[in-house]
Amino acid sequence: MKRIGWTDRDDLILKSCVADAEHEGRSLSSAFRSAARLTGRMPDSIRNHYYAEKNGSKGRTYKPFTDEETARLIKEITDMRAKGYSVRRAALELAGGDAALMLRYQNKYRAESGKIPPKKPVKKDADPSRLIREKNRELSLQHKRFMMLHAMFTKLCELNSELAKQLADEDKIALFEKRIKGIREAEV
């Protein structure tokens, strides 16, 4: 289940966990882990919310990716990777130079591509990592076709070179025979 927005209950749990950690002399990280267990959120999400609240960024909200946005992002970055772009460069280009948006795209791509374990189970038909595997399979087939065509082209070039050499040799032989014939006719 996607968790969008923070409830008053979530805020109370976080405040309670932070207060307990401070009282017991534990780190904030341990408080974030405790709050994560109780709210079903990830510790990093808890930490980000804590510091946003502490620094007065309450108006800033998290906008999750839709399945369509995720699929489009994965397809576009994977296509750009096939053209030699790094994930970071592809994300920056898709973000139009916006560094914060680039980081969001890059993190989403890496999370969905399996470099970061998925945080929640996804429906099979909306599995972004499946889209990446399919695109990689398609690129692999294209690469194999290209390598086969390249090998065929190389062989044709070699055959053409051999044929040209044979033709040149035949022309030399014909010229040599013509000269011999000319010498014989001159002797008579």
Task: Describe the fold and architecture.
Among the domains are: about 10-55; about 65-135. The chain is built from seven helices and no strands. The mean pLDDT is about 80. The chain has helices at about 10-25, 30-40, 45-55, 65-80, 85-95, 100-110, 130-185. It is rod-shaped, with a radius of gyration of 33 Å. With about 190 residues, the chain is an all-alpha fold.
Strand content: under 5%
Number of helices: 7
* Mean pLDDT metric: 81
- Helical percent range? over 70%
- Strand-and-helix sequence, N→C? HHHHHHH
Beginning-to-end CA distance, first to last residue = 106 Å
Largest sheet: none
Stretches with pLDDT under 50, minimum 5 residues: none
Q: What is the radius of gyration?
A: 33 Å
Tally of DSSP β-strands = 0
Structural category: mainly alpha
Multimeric state of these chains?
single chain
What spatial form do the alpha-carbon principal axes imply?
rod-shaped
